[in-house]
Amino acid sequence: MKNPRIYLETERLVLRPSSLSDALDIYNLRSDPSVAKYQGWRPKSIEEVSAQLEKENNLPFNKVNTWYRLILEVKTNANVIGEIGLHFVDEQNAQVEIGISLAPTFQHSGYAKEALNAVLDYLFHTLKKHRVYASIDPRNTSADALLRKLRFRKEAHFVKSYFHLGEWLDDVIYAQLKEEYQKPIV
To answer: Measured between alpha carbons, how far is 50 from 160 in angstroms, rounded to an integer?
Structure first.
């Protein structure tokens, strides 16, 4: 199945599939130094973002080694404030890696937790996934705190295991199993 039209709603947000019209918003988000600091992908141009979105939107959904991007919009004004990436990683199609990027002006306002709660519910209950995990730079204390609030377990801390932008970085893995998942935390 290509690019299913997944729409999730929370109290304040709409989570929707990305489209080419999101290229400028994604470029602006990922070009912000405070956001890009912990991101693996730092696009150099809007054209690069457009090419990436076109590629992603033509990949099969929910298959090994595919990414699916959800755009986070504020319900009241349709402002794009971030994105969530879903990476389908294993042959059994039972595990998903997640990542989130949020514009700095919307951080620390509960939007990330609200969005991830909806995504976790969707992954565990609709898609019947077994395990959801996140890989973070341990210096990203906001992501660390968010995952702990969402009841993710710290599974591993790999020391200098990720080479990025000319330096070796640590990588911390947080995960949650379907049987550990509890309804959204307010």
So the answer is: 32
